[in-house]
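Follow-up to my earlier ticket, as requested here are the two runs.
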Amino acid sequence: MIASRLCACSFVHRGRSLSEGLQWVAYRGFRHVDVGIGGANAHFCPIAVASDPLTFSAQVIKQAQEHQLSVNECFVLNFGWPINVPDVGRRDETARLFIGLCRFAAAAGFTSVLLIPGPVHPEIGAEKSFDLSVTALNELAKIADGHGVRLHVEADMESCANTPELADELCRRTPKLHLTLDYSHFICQGIDALRVERLFPHVRHLHIRQAAPGQIATPVEQGTIDFHHIINQLEVGGYRGLYCIEYLTLDPERRTAAMLGQLSAVAAVAAEINSANSAVVHQKERPHAQ
């Protein structure tokens, strides 16, 4: 059932400590958590974490155990500069720091590390910016794989992979790369939701919040994303990852609760689908009568 696979973010509120973020997640009944190591609401500086991975991983392990939470994705984005920055020295520094970050993620028990592809740099154009992202991500994905964690990207609306087609190409050109899919980055651009389904084979994690054309986040009741359809399609296709509610604005506590309410009906339907699929598999595996 997907109810047991719902997840929340520790970094919903800016300025809160890791312990405060985890307490918020646990209090609302979640058992899985994505932890903010990068971005505006991060609990730690990603460069500091990469430089002292075992000290920081010990903190995460201790506090996650205290709140009876299982850590899922290490939310990083970047180290303060894009991963596809044209400066080769900066890209080399990213790779060096990423080794330490993956040591941290593996030691703390994360399943994946999340980065973003980087923007289009006007001085080199869209194609070369995309190629630099592919090159960087191939190297970083190998580092992550060597540490036993997955590398995920979120194809955000400001990146060089801001359409489903570009995100698909990014994954196809980076064999060890996977997606944390967030529909809101596509829907707010006016992209048809059906175009996004081409990404399903690459998806290993899903961010959930409502959005609409021109709005990357909306109140739950005003959004246009059909999560009932999306989750059912993913489940039928064999997706067994987590579903993470990610409201960082618009009164996140209230919106998270509302999103949970909307997902409750979806969970019941998904359970029926999984049960039906299991019955079909069981039927196929039964020996034929002689």
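Run two:
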Amino acid sequence: MIRVYTNRPKGVFELSYLKPVLVSVIFAGLFALSNVFAKTSVWKVSNGDDYFYLGGTVHLLDEADHPLPKEFQTAYLDSQELIFETDIGDANSSEVQTAFAQAIASKDGRGLSQKLSPAIHSQLSDFLSQRGMPAEGFEGFEPWGVALMISAIEYQRIGLQAEYGVDQHFNQLAARDGKQIGELETLAEQMGFLSSLGSVEGDIMVEQTLNDLDKLSSVFDELKSAWREGDMQALINTESVKLMRTDFPTVYDALLVQRNKNWMQKVDGLFADQNTEFVMVGVLHLAGTDGLLNMLQQQGYNVSQLGQTKSAPIAQTPLPKPKSKTAPKAKSSWVVNRR
């Protein structure tokens, strides 16, 4: 029987909002600052006179982080449709909560205490006891699932909530203003990517998550600063990204690279209609040679950063020369799930 904590903080099982800390050891220190030329993480992607906006988001923020950078509002007001990673409104449904609990449930009949070494399980039990949660309540879950839950609990504890996140904020505005809303992938598809986390050994996942919890606040402060400045250099010029690629290649490929490739097939089709769209995805999906910004530029689109005062590089490594500016093959509007 799966035991699910009934008094868990709101959003514990919301996958799209947990993504930035799926493997906290990987992302620790990821958002260090560097000198920047641009104001925030919003880009205009153009093909001739047709264009859409692409915004890098932070899924969890606190009330003090508002108002958001003005470039987000500029893009929002100029758009008829908002497109998010997934259906944000459905993420809190009981069906999704149950599906997530089933996804992280032990698959081989062994309990958590049997999958972790005695030392790591003891460390986890001590942490849960400090938070007033009995370790027995987590016995039926996979180690990576427990790592997700305790990370989410700590985010809540330091005041970071999905309701103040960029995605939730604009999803609510779009619903209020009657704008069209779409998503790049279904919640079921998003949950499918969780299987990549099973490639990380349980002791490593839980131990590093616990050890990095005391850094959560400072790491997120750096994240928010780099995000506000639209500093893609800061997101890729870190040892954490190199560690993610070399030590956790399966996770990196599944959660970032493959999803970016999937989204590119859909984003490319946005030029086939008359709407101006504002696509909003986690800021990590934009940076580096595997990021959407570089992929779009490789496709020959003009990519310019809103609020930019100087020409700023998209990634640390040189980008390939854009293809000739011929119009891409039009794709049907159904490639994005619209509501």
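The only thing I checked on run two: Strands lie at 42-47, 50-57, 81-84, 180-183, 277-282, 302-305, 337-338. Let me know what else you need.
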